[in-house]
Design brief:
By secondary structure, the chain is α+β, with helices and mostly antiparallel strands. Helix content is 16%, strand content 34%. The protein has a single domain (4-176), classed as Jelly Rolls (Sandwich). It contains 2 helices and 11 strands; from the N terminus they run H-H-E-E-E-E-E-E-E-E-E-E-E. A 5-stranded antiparallel sheet has the order 1-2-9-4-7, with helices on one face. Helix 1 runs antiparallel to helix 2. The protein binds fe (ii) ion. Fe (ii) ion (FE2) binds next to strand 8.
Length: 190
């Protein structure tokens, strides 16, 4: 399987960041680049598309050596979802396979988190998160009988960031570092 499309995306997003853009430029132009990547579903190597029977998987596809960005394949098995969580950096999400449901949350005066919206992400579509535009959400596989996959791009090495999961009702937060499901990354020059 050719990873040329992924290499083209890595080059495009790196060139964009090299111009020191403000965040709104990253979110708009980065999403346009990501939309090109997820416009076709013929480039993700199978090893980075495998669901796990118990929990969703985060496969690192690429990380910038200076931690300016990371690219991750998220694979949800049937019925799997994330907890309510934050990212503490900008993030771009592009649907590649299946159908995901994102529920956004906002912190309330009493410290709890209230769901403020819900949207489906289909293959080819993109969305974004960040502390500036809304950083707390939950993502679920909306399909009961097959995996869903999305490609995520973050402004840091997301698997190494100390961030939070939340109990929406009580507002209680727990620190976590997600890590990655795999010790290898795709060969961009295959
Ligand atoms: Fe997320």
């Amino acid at each position: 399987m050719s990873t040329e499309k992924l290499l083209n995306f890595v080059q495009g997003i790196t060139r964009l960041l090299d111009t020191n853009p403000d965040e709104s430029t990253i979110l708009s132009q980065g999403q346009a680049l990501l939309a090109e990547l997820v416009a076709s579903d013929d480039w993700l190597p199978d090893a980075f598309a495998q669901p796990h029977p118990q929990h969703y998987q985060q496969y690192l596809l690429y990380a910038d050596p200076l931690d300016r960005l990371s690219i991750v394949s998220f694979v949800w098995g049937p019925g799997q979802k994330t907890p309510v969580h934050d990212h503490l950096t900008w993030g771009l999400v592009g649907g590649l396979r299946g159908r995901e449901r994102e529920t956004t949350y906002e912190k309330q005066a009493d410290g709890s988190y209230k769901a403020t919206g819900s949207a489906l992400l289909l293959p080819g579509q993109t969305t974004a998160v960040s502390p500036a535009i809304g950083d707390v959400h939950e993502v679920a596989n909306d399909l009961p009988d097959q995996p869903s996959i999305s490609i995520h791009v973050y402004g840091r090495n997301i698997g190494r960031v100390h961030r939070h999961v939340f109990d929406a009702v009580s507002g209680a937060e727990k620190s976590f570092v997600s890590g990655y499901a795999s010790d290898v990354v795709p060969n961009l020059w295959s």
